[in-house]
Amino acid sequence: MQLTFGDAEGLGKRKQTRREIFLAEMERIVPWKQLLALFPNKLARRAQEETRGSHGFDPGLPSMRAVFLAQGPDLAQGKTLPGFDNVDVYALMTRLLGIPAAPNDGNPATLLPALRVPLAAGPQ
Can you give the pTM of this predicted structure? Predict the structure, then answer.
């Protein structure tokens, strides 16, 4: 069978991936830029150097919370704790590893109830 010019025309073109097709369709169905413009964000309007760690999202919003799951020999089983800030995890990890903690904004007491046996109080 001989290849025609019409058949050969599409041979060098890369096919769109499913993801690319999906995203193109989503942009057509939901105009994200227009939709997001309806919800101005206070943090996004601040100078960039003021918000380098927040990336324009308000960390105080419930929708910005994360799930924290932990398992290990020093952690209590089936324990549920109230919400906490991610910076509080650092203090727990340094205590579990037995290494000194650098100065930080976390509260070391926040996650102590997650421990199976309370650790001795110390500078960590």
Answer: 0.47
pLDDT of residue 34: 74
Is the residue at 78 inside a domain?
yes
Concatenate the DSSP letters of all residues of 74-99 into one string: TB-TT-------THHHHHHHHHHHT-
What is the rounded CA–CA span in Å between residue 109 and residue 98? 16
d(CA 122, CA 94): 11
Backbone phi and psi for residue 115, each to the nearest 5 degrees, phi listed first: -80, 145
Q: Are residues 38 and 80 in the same domain?
A: no
Q: Which amino acid appears at position 9 of this protein?
A: E
28, with CB counted inside 10 A (0-12, 13-18, 19+), is exposed
- Chain-centroid distance of CA 73 in Å reads 26
If one counts the domains in the chain, the total is 2
- Which regions in the chain score pLDDT beneath 50? 43, 47-48, 122-124
Six-digit token string for 88: 């509080």
What is the residue range of 4's domain? 1-57
Average pLDDT, the chain: 77
Total residue length of the chain? 124
